[in-house]
Amino acid sequence: MAEAEVIRIQDGKRADPQLCRGRTADGRPCRNRAGASGYCKRHEPAAVRATSTVPSRFEADLERTLSFLRRRVTGGYDVDDFGFDKDLTENVLLPILRPLFDKWWRVEQRGLENIPTSGPALLVSNHSGTLPLDALMMKLAVYEGTGRHCRLLAADLPFRLPFIGEIARKSGNTLACAEDSTRLLDADEVVGVFPEGYKGIGKPFRERYKLQRFGRGGFVEVALRTGAPMIPVSIVGAEEIYPIIYNVKPLARLLGFPYFPVTPTFPALGLLGAVPLPSKWIIEYGTPIETKAFTPDAALDPMFVFNLTDQVREAIQQTLYKNLMSRRSVFF
């Protein structure tokens, strides 16, 4: 026996199953053709429309941009005591770096699980590359991998430069001193430090991936006083972006710079020489070196601080050698 057809009746009349189930403003049956939900676009419930309408990427980006501009105009954003503007950093400064991170240097991260999801952490990294682009890449890498902001400690030179100093503050950087780093770690922040300083970033290419002295171990003293774990960070790839073949020391002294580099492309090619080479990068976060087991008084023992500093330095150096061996070539 054939199945009976179910016929819908509206106001005593046979209803077309392809017509909308809604009613017009005067109470009459809607004569528009129905969609999959049984209603026309005019009478389709809002919840159904919301799930069926997916905004395009352009629309989403436009909405995000307009929301950002609205916050800047109305002052609906926060700046902390160090000048860190989280809203500006996440929506403007870090996105500018992403093409370099993703496409140009193709940064590969290893050991992200060693960065704690909460609480203080001191990232101790090697430094190289003529310009501190390795610090910027590490900052973006930590944010991309963990969602946390790495507060970088920098020398005083960037903060003395117009515009750059203001951007450095707004992006979360602060002066490399015990007072500021202690305050940040006590506030459970992730802090990044580069103990080699200018000796590392301005060393000649023939000394690439050979760590310079780590100073007097000031970062170890801060870690001991705050109980923050020290995480050795090894960055491979930055040494090749601007290979320094000569340092013009008289010109550096004249300009007030720690060094004046001569590379294969700069200053011979002018502004074109400022384009970094597309080397292959690897950033690895090593096993944390815990400091909670020690009392703050341990920071007063110079020999203990020296030994702990050497332990961190050796961990970074060995990881650099390992990752250099695993890299197929400088550019791949």
| Helical coverage, percent range | 25-40%
User: What is the typical, i.e. mean, pLDDT?
Assistant: 90
H and E order = EEHHHEEHEHHEHEHHEEHEEH
CATH superfamily of the largest domain: Glycerol-3-phosphate (1)-acyltransferase
The Cα radius of gyration reads 29 Å
Principal-axis shape equals: elongated
By CATH reckoning, the class of the largest domain would read Alpha Beta
The class by helix and strand makeup works out as: alpha/beta
Number of strands: 11
- Reported by name, the CATH topology of the largest domain is Glycerol-3-phosphate (1)-acyltransferase
Q: Quote the distance from N terminus to C terminus.
A: 71 Å
So what's the oligomer here? Answer: single chain
Unreliable residue runs: 1-7, 10-15
As for the number of domains, it is: 2
CATH architectural name of the largest domain: 3-Layer(aba) Sandwich
Strand order of the largest sheet: 3-11-8-4-7-5-6
Query: Total number of helical segments?
Result: 11
Beta fraction: 5-15%
Descriptive account of the structure:
The chain has helices spanning 46-52, 57-74, 86-104, 133-146, 157-160, 164-170, 178-186, 198-201, 218-226, 249-255, 302-326, and strands spanning 9-10, 13-14, 108-110, 121-125, 150-154, 174-175, 190-193, 230-236, 246-247, 261-262, 282-285. It has a seven-stranded mixed β-sheet, sandwiched between helices. It folds into two domains: 24-53, no CATH class; 86-241 and 276-326, Glycerol-3-phosphate (1)-acyltransferase (3-Layer(aba) Sandwich). The protein starts with 8 loop residues before the first strand and ends in a 6-residue tail after the last helix. The protein has eleven helices and eleven strands. The protein is an alpha/beta fold and 332 residues long. A hairpin with a 2-residue loop joins strand 1 and strand 2. Helix 3 crosses helix 4 and helix 7 runs parallel beside helix 9 (218-226). 37% of the residues lie in helices and 11% in strands.
